[in-house]
Amino acid sequence: MPTVTHARAPFRFGSRAGATPAGEPLARPLRHRRWPLALAVAALLAQMAVAMVTTAVRQTPTIDEPVYAGTAVVYARQHSLRYNPEHPPLGKLVVAAGLMVTHPRLDADFTGDQTELGRALLYESGNDPGRLMLWARLPVIVLTLLFGTVVFAFARDLVGDAAGLVGLALYAFSPDVIAHGSLATLDVPAAGFLLTSAWLLWRGGRRPVLYLPLGGAALGAALATKMSTLAAVPVVLGLAAWSVWTATRGQRSAPGEGGGARRLGRALAAAAGVALVAVAVVWAAYLAVDPQLRWTPPSGLPRVRGLRGLVVDRLPLPRPYRDGMRIQFRFENKRWDGFLFGRHYRGSLWYYLPAALLVKTPLGALALWGAGAVATVTVRRVRPAAPYVLVLPAVLLASAMHGSRDLGVRYAVFLPMFLAVAAACVLTVRRRWAHAVTGALVLFAAVSSLRTFPYYLPYSNEAFGGPSRTHLRLHDSNVDWGQDLGRLADRLRERYRGERIWLVYKGSGVPSHYGIHAADPREVPPGRVHGLLVVSDSSVAKARGRLAALIEAGEPVDEVGHSITVYRLP
């Protein structure tokens, strides 16, 4: 039976540098083989960069971005934590690094809420919103590309060079990662920091003194970016302990030293050390905004009782972080609107995220995710990596599925990252056809991604009709997050100049800034609404009453960016 060979031997727990666990010398890659590998990695990251930058340039602000951008400017200029406390500051500090290049103007005496702050920064202070948002997005794009190198390195450690390329290709062509990695939001940075932490802890199985503190720092960066990553803390600490336990498996203790107890003590100490580093990073993020950590709790801050309240009160984290957790718990107690496969509902469905991922993931990637997960669990060579590659995202997915907000697969954007690494483990299958099938599936996923360019946010795979049909099955950030207001303005000028426009727009942009002069059809008697009715597809999905009647009476004549539908009313 033919065996699979690799240019680089996989990383193993407890193995010596330059030797396999059995002691045989490793075949070092020839120098001339490194250039094709480096070029392949550069090409994959370059196409991803082009896709993200092009998307960032063409899209107007999405719903969350103005709030983050405004908060970032207040962080940098006023060193105040008063805005957007429901999210920790690190991701917004990353955004600020780009925004400050533009020297944005903002009234230092502004006193509105965070939504008004974002609007004031982009549209009411003499700034160019397109330029501001591009520079706000660029640091996140850079981070997203760096996380791609982590995917490559992780997969390469496990199986070899070819596996590294497979993992990186799935990541670099992931429509969801491209879509959200090109926005000044927090989902991709938080997920990428968790992936980095898992990879560093995996490496900590051989060099714990070097890699475990770095893994703790990456965990702290995730916690300092988005609070939903708190669900990963017990798993990451368990992985840190397991890495040290495994690293000391072959060490012998002198008689009477209690080898097992000593190993356990080291493992628990490692977990405690990782936790301390993570907590220090969270504190550092808040102190970077305001070294004095001045904080006034917002009015109406909810009280959290029971086990949740006990956890919030006891966490060794800054008071603003713990108050932000209280706000997040209030969000979780709300009943949000959902939309799945044409059904509008109130509340949440436990199976929403798996169903949405089935729609929004390339079919080739889905096949490789499944096969890779099976290979990671069943193939002895890579089985030790299963807790790092599969258990952590499984816990995060379970936590997200338990949440109350069925608003998009961005809440599970960690899956394309972790499962790209798992998919690379398919190459451990000792069958020649496995390589050919893997290559074909990667190519299928890549072609599907390229065909949706530059409309990555409303992507759906071929089984569900592609991006033009996504709005029939999903809503909100899966399809329509307000990103196409600029494209709508261009379309109206090109095709419908001088016509009466009625607009129902779901987003944070200001239509008049882009030259769209329209009225809301819900604010006048139905008999006065004639001409063009323009509706964001998320509003179509949730339409009731008067708006639903107008949509029913209209004829769809155009669509913009696969997220806005234009109707002709009699």
Mean pLDDT: 92
Radius of gyration: 25 Å
**Shape assignment:** globular
* Helix content bin: 40-55%
The largest sheet, given as strand count, sense and whether it forms a barrel, is: 4 strands, mixed
Beta-strand portion reads 5-15%
- Taking the alpha carbons of the first and last residues, their distance comes to 71 Å
Give me the side-by-side strand order of the main sheet: 3-4-6-5
Order of helices and strands: HHHHHHHHHHHHHEEHHHHHHEEHHEE
- Give the tally of β-strands: 6
Layout of helices and strands, plus pairs?
Blueprint: H1 31-58, H2 65-78, H3 90-99, H4 114-123, H5 129-158, H6 161-172, H7 175-181, H8 187-203, H9 208-223, H10 233-247, H11 259-289, H12 306-314, H13 319-332, E1 337-340, E2 343-346, H14 352-360, H15 363-378, H16 386-401, H17 414-424, H18 432-452, H19 485-495, E3 501-504, E4 531-536, H20 537-541, H21 545-553, E5 555-560, E6 564-569
Parallel strand pairs: 3-4
Antiparallel strand pairs: 1-2, 4-6, 5-6
Helix pairs in contact: 1-5, 1-6, 2-3, 2-4, 3-5, 5-6, 5-8, 5-17, 6-17, 8-9, 8-10, 9-10, 9-11, 10-11, 15-17, 15-18, 16-17
Please give a handful of descriptors for the protein shown.
single chain, 570 residues, mainly alpha, four-stranded mixed sheet, two-stranded antiparallel sheet, 21 helices, 6 strands, 55% helix, 5% strand
